[in-house]
Every structure is written in C-alpha cells, then in structure tokens.
C-alpha cells in the first residue's frame, strides 16, 4: 500500500522467496556456485543448510530458475510423511502415475523412468526441502535412491535442503553411508552488518527505487542487532518501518522509530526474544556465532578426515599397482624364456626337416635306380621265356649271364 508513496514498482520486503530479489552475500554466493557445480558435475548428493529465514528456499528457487531444458525436476516440500508417501510425492512430481501403486511398484517405475531419462540425455533432479523433518529411516531410504546408477554416473541428482538440525541428524552413526555420499555441502550464514545494509538497498533497487527512503546509521545498526543478519527478519522489520514512515509521511527513518516498531513487533509476535536467548539479542548473535564456528570446525574435521582417507586409499592403490607391476615383470621374463625355447626348438626342427629331405632325396634316387634294374631284368626274363625248349643250352647260357 506504500509503493506509490516511495516510487516503487512492488513491495521490496515481501516475505515471498522471490529469486528476483536474491542477494548474494559471501556465503550465499558460495552456496550458489557450489550448487551450479554439483548440478553440472552430477555430484550425487548436495546438502544445503541454514537457519530459519536465511534464504534457503530463495536460493533453491533461483537454482531452479536457471536450470536448462534438459533437466527434469521433482521437489518435495512436505517431509512429515511415511516412506510410501514420500515415494508417491517424488514419482507424482516427476509426472508418473501413482494411483493404487504400492512402494515396490513406485520404486520400479521410478527406476524405469530414470533409465529412460538417461537414455534421452536428460538430468532428473530431486530437491527435498525442509529435510530436517525426515527421520533417520527416511533419510536412509533417500540414500538408497542414490543407488540407481549406471557404471559411469548417477541416474538421480539429490539436493537436501534443511535447517542446522539436519546436520546433527546426519551425524548419527547409522547414517554414515549417507554422510559419505554427500559430495557437496554449503551452509548459509547470517549477513554481516555491512551485508545487511547492502541487502536492504539491493531490495529497494530491485523494487524500483534504491533511494526510496533514507536509513540513518543507527537505524541500520539497530536492524542488524535485532535481526542478527537473518534475511527474513530484516524483511519483517523493514516492511513495518516503511509502513510506519508512510503513516508519518516521512522518507527518513531514525533509531527512535526503529526501537518503537521493534517493540510493537516483539510484543505481538516474539520474533527475537525466546527462552533460549535469555531475552537478549546479543546472546542470540553470540549463539549464532558459536554455531557457525562449530559448523566450520566440523567441516574442517570432515575435510581433514577425507584428505587422510584419500591419502590412505592412494597408498593402498600404489602398493597394489607395485605388486601388479612386479607380477607383470615376472610374467614378462617367463614369456621371454618361453619364446627363446620356442626359437631353439624351431631351429632344431628346421634342421631335422632339412636332413630328412636330403635322406628322402637319396632314397628316392636309389629306388628309381632299382626300378630301372628291375625293368631291365623283366625284359631279359621275357627274352629267355621266348627261347624254344630245343635250345636248352642257349637258355642256360643266357641265365648265367643275367645272374652273374
């Protein structure tokens, strides 16, 4: 209702997670880069965590907005469900028929669908929002979905989005296999004081007028102090501040106005004071800082453990390759020895064949000479047979001459 007064095209501090208003703080920009890389490289599991109102949904919507035409998306919002209900929502969002289907049928049809998508060179992506509500059993079933894969790539890209409690749940011993499959992790930290001011001006600029209203320095400090850098709380405060300025017909905000508005909001909604904070905004900031520090320490420990694991795996692989190389050398020596023996045997065989050929040649010549002599003898015997019986004396003389 105040847009016209401040020369704005739309409300700058609406609570709807509109990706057009996405402000890339240091941690938001890092998360966006990680998400783009994970999608491009088909990294399997991606984990995005952040406090309530830190901008998780906005950054996911911006990711969806930037997906290319080869992506097929299934997004689950309601995570307080049973295993079969979860599978039904996933399949239904992928456009599969889920009417009267049991869990086994749902899994089989999802697998067939993913294989078909892979054959068509499409990339199915499953985004599970509010994943901190999933029980360890359901998280394990989500992990099982990542077993749908080919020899080269995952058939399904899974993005888990949730509050910091999700990280604690994933730390349970029974979920260690799932933890090991999370290739990319990113956490959305609250904005710094400087980023808070840039965030406010950024939203005013996107809404149509960066200079719609002037915030005194104390005002920005107060907004940051009460919101603790949480974008959603900044939006709530700034929306009421602009409404208050509109009611007063002013375009300058002072610290007094902020404190008055914050007091009204807190008395009605208790946005900032709760039992855990001790009704002290500074304690909330301290709590957020401690949690961020603990998160960084956990990430560093995980990175160190992963690095040591990679070194150990590399050493094991090198030892295995060395052993295989040694076996290969032994095999090569044996092969050369066999080749040498075969060469010697071949040479001996060739010599034997040559000697045999010579012997056969001599034998053939001798047999040919023998055949000639036998033919001559046969002719002489024929001549003797033709001698008449009356010439016995002549016949005997011929026989003596033949056998002499």
Describe what this molecule looks like in 3D.
With 404 residues, this protein is of the alpha/beta class. The chain contains 13 helices and 7 strands. The protein has helices spanning 26-40, 56-65, 83-93, 103-119, 136-145, 165-170, 176-181, 193-207, 217-227, 231-248, 255-269, 281-385, 392-403, and strands at residues 45-50, 71-76, 123-128, 157-162, 182-188, 214-215, 252-253. Strands 2-3-4-1-5 form a 5-stranded parallel β-sheet, with helices on both faces. It has a two-stranded parallel ribbon with strand order 6-7. Helix 5 (136-145) links the parallel strand 3 and strand 4. The longest helix is centred in the last third of the chain and has 105 residues, at 281-385. It is rod-shaped and about 175 Å long. Mean pLDDT is 82; it is low at 274-288.
Brief summary:
By secondary structure, the chain is of the alpha/beta class. The chain has 13 helices and seven strands. Residues 346-380 form a coiled coil.
């Amino acid at each position: 209702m105040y847009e016209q007064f401040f020369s704005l095209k739309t409300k700058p501090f609406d609570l709807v997670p509109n990706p057009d208003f996405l402000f890339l703080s240091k941690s938001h920009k890092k998360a966006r880069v990680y998400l783009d890389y994970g999608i491009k490289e088909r990294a399997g599991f991606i984990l995005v965590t952040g406090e309530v109102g830190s901008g998780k949904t906005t950054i996911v919507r911006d990711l969806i907005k930037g997906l290319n035409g080869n992506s097929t998306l299934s997004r689950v919002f309601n995570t307080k469900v049973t295993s079969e209900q979860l599978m039904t929502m996933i399949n239904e969002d992928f456009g599969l028929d889920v009417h009267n289907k049991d869990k086994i049928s749902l899994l089989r049809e999802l697998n067939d669908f993913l294989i078909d998508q892979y054959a068509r060179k499409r990339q199915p992506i499953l985004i599970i929002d509010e994943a901190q509500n999933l029980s360890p059993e359901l998280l394990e079933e989500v992990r099982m979905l990542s077993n749908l894969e080919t020899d080269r790539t995952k058939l399904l890209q899974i993005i888990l989005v949730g509050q910091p409690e999700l990280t604690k749940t994933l730390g349970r011993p029974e979920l260690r296999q799932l933890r090991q499959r999370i290739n990319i992790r990113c956490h959305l930290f609250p904005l710094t004081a400087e980023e808070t001011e840039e965030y406010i001006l950024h939203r005013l600029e996107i809404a149509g007028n960066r200079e719609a209203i002037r915030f005194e320095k104390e005002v920005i400090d107060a907004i940051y102090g009460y919101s603790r850098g949480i974008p959603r709380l900044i939006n709530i405060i700034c929306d009421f501040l602009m409404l208050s300025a509109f009611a007063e017909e002013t375009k300058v905000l002072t610290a007094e106005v902020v404190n008055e508005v914050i007091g009204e909001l807190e008395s009605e909604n208790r946005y900032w004071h709760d039992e855990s904070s001790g009704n002290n905004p500074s304690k909330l900031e301290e709590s957020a800082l401690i949690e961020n520090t603990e998160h960084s320490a956990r990430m560093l420990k995980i990175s160190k453990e992963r690095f040591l694991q990679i070194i150990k795996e590399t050493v094991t692989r090198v030892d295995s390759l060395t052993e295989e190389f040694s076996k290969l050398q032994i095999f090569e020596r044996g092969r050369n020895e066999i080749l040498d023996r075969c060469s010697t045997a071949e040479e001996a065989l060739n010599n034997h064949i040559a000697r045999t050929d010579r012997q056969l040649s001599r034998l053939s010549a001798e047999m040919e000479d023998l055949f000639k002599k036998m033919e001559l003898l046969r002719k002489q015997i024929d001549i003797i047979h033709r001698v008449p019986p009356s010439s016995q004396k002549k016949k005997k003389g011929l026989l003596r001459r033949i056998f002499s």
